[in-house]
Amino acid sequence: MRMMVMLAATTLAACGTSDASTDNGTVVLRNLADTEVAAPRPEHLKIVGQLIPTPSDSQSRYYLLRHRTTLVGTSIAIMRQEKGDRVAYARTEVDCARRLFHVVGVASTRGRVESDVAHDGPLRSIHGLPLREELAAYVCERSGTPLRDA
Question: How far, in Å, CA of 54 to CA of 46, rounded?
């Protein structure tokens, strides 16, 4: 029993929480590399990723590193934002059929973003959010389920 309690405490401590959200609880992906979540860009990145076209944000480059489809049909994607000499990672969830998106985690490394918990709230509409729409469209296309038309 004691071992179980220690394991649970260690697991909770390893699963960080981020503070990259605004007052309304939304994580701002456009400025993620400008926050305390970001880190200096390493000289060589281990995972290059696929460049995501984001005409709404000409100051950053976004890369899709990994994606998978969940049992309920949404897509989980790991992305990297590069802005100047800084990088930040985001784990997002996209519902392609309902045009919904939210940030599940943010971190300074790809490994940490897997366990981070961002306080971005539930899946919500991408209407009027061009960057989220561009990211969602790319993830949906790659997962084989095109983003539903608006």
Answer: 22
Q: How confident is the model at residue 119 (pLDDT cuts 50, 70, 90)?
A: confident
Could you give phi then psi for residue 29, rounded to 5 degrees? -65, -35
pLDDT in tens, 50-88: 999 999 999 999 999 999 999 999 999 999 999 999 999
Identify any residues that bridge with 102 across adjacent strands, giving them in sequence order.
93
State the CB neighbour count (10 A cutoff) for residue 58. Answer: 7
Q: What is the DSSP letter of 89?
A: E
Distance CA 4, CA 33 (A): 37
Determine the Cα–Cα distance for residues 52 and 67; give it in Å rounded to an integer. 13
